[in-house]
Design goal:
single chain; 317 residues; alpha/beta; Rossmann fold; UDP-galactose 4-epimerase, domain 1; seven-stranded parallel β-sheet; two-stranded parallel ribbon; 17% strand; binds uridine-diphosphate-N-acetylglucosamine
Length: 317
């Protein structure tokens, strides 16, 4: 069993990754500065032997290096980030500090502490808007936001450091991740988190545009499993891979699937399409299957059932 350092451990993806690592018998050194992470997300982890939490800012030069040198983890899973595309547009300097400079500090921590593996949370935002469907990793990257650009730059920083100093880097381009603990409070939060909260409150959801736009929604449990594999599977080669399902779900289908869990709720409200909204985003999962042996196996209906409180929609009359 390995010791894994997880940055952003109190965040949405970080806390699920931490829980899965612990459940699989690994030790976890969790790091978070609680900028957007929440201590409640780690309630289970904090009562698990094998988990240690450090309140630390990855963007502070030297901080992570000192911790990694003391702990000597086998791998770092770097999930700490400024997570909002909108925030990166409003504050590009903060995006650069947290999503580029901090990545360099993670790469340095790995080098200085002799860490063998780094797993990085990249994003489908590196592709921008493309007509390619599904999107393989060979598709030209054209980020449309400081956030997407920072994720792409971070991939290169880590891969270059790993190749130079002898550690393996796996970059995960996550598509639209959803599940328990995702923050629903901004209009630009993930659509499933918003829909879940509004349906549960008996409030109508808003569909922007005609609802025919599609996304590749992947359950956070599957994403956590991809992180576990990338951090612990022996003999992986460095590289970049989409973490996606390869299945497209339209907004209309999503709203209908939610409605089946809350019969009698108000119908959706239609609103104009968002400017800059991408019509279709679908990942090609083949490379992750080939290189990591990873396949997402949670169907959206099952993932929604878990999120919305348990009753499988198929059983709702
Ligand atoms: C993602 C980013 C978003 C960014 C966009 C850039 C996340 C959670 N979102 O959006 O910040 O601007 O990439 O391309 O990382 N929708 C509704 N009703 C709602 C909320 C959303 O109809 O209440 C629609 C959106 O218009 C969109 C779809 O649902 O068509 C998915 O939205 P979202 O979850 O924000 O994901 P992305 O569009 O991929």
């Amino acid at each position: 069993m390995a010791k894994i350092l997880v940055t952003g451990a109190a965040g949405f993806i970080g806390s699920h990754t931490t829980d899965l690592l612990l459940a699989s018998g690994h030790r976890v050194v969790g790091v978070d500065n609680f900028r957007t992470g929440r201590r409640e997300n780690l309630t289970a982890a904090l009562s698990t032997p094998g988990f240690a939490l450090h309140e630390l800012d990855v963007a502070l030069p030297g901080a992570l290096s000192a911790l990694a040198a003391a702990e000597r983890p086998a791998a770092i899973i770097h999930l700490a980030a400024l997570v909002s595309v909108q925030e990166s547009l409003a504050n590009p300097a903060e995006n650069f500090a947290l999503n580029v400079q901090a990545t360099h500090l993670v790469a340095e921590a790995a080098r200085l502490a002799g860490v063998g593996r780094v797993v990085f949370a990249s994003s489908s935002a590196v592709y921008g808007d493309t007509n390619v469907r599904p999107i393989p990793e060979t598709t030209e990257t054209r980020p449309l936001s400081p956030y997407g650009a920072a994720k792409l730059a971070s991939e290169s920083l880590l891969l270059g450091h790993g190749a130079s100093f002898g550690f393996t880097v796996r970059c995960h381009r996550y598509f639209n991740v959803y599940g328990p603990r995702q923050d629903p409070t901004s209009p630009y939060s993930g659509v499933i988190s918003i829909f879940a909260r509004r349906f549960a409150a008996g409030q109508p959801v808003t569909i922007h545009g005609d609802g025919g736009q599609t996304r590749d929604f992947i359950a956070v449990g599957d994403v956590a499993r991809a992180n576990l594999i990338a951090a612990t599977r022996p003999d992986l080669r460095p590289g970049v891979a989409n973490i996606c399902t390869g299945r497209a779900t339209s907004l209309l289908d999503l709203a209908q699937a939610c409605a089946r869990h809350f019969p009698g709720g108000p119908p959706p409200v239609h609103a104009p399409a968002r400017s800059g909204d991408i019509r279709h985003s679908l990942g090609d999962p083949a490379r992750a299957a080939a290189e990591l042996g990873f396949t997402a196996d949670t169907e959206v209906a099952a993932g929604l059932a878990e999120l919305l409180g348990g009753v499988p929609a198929a059983l709702v009359p």
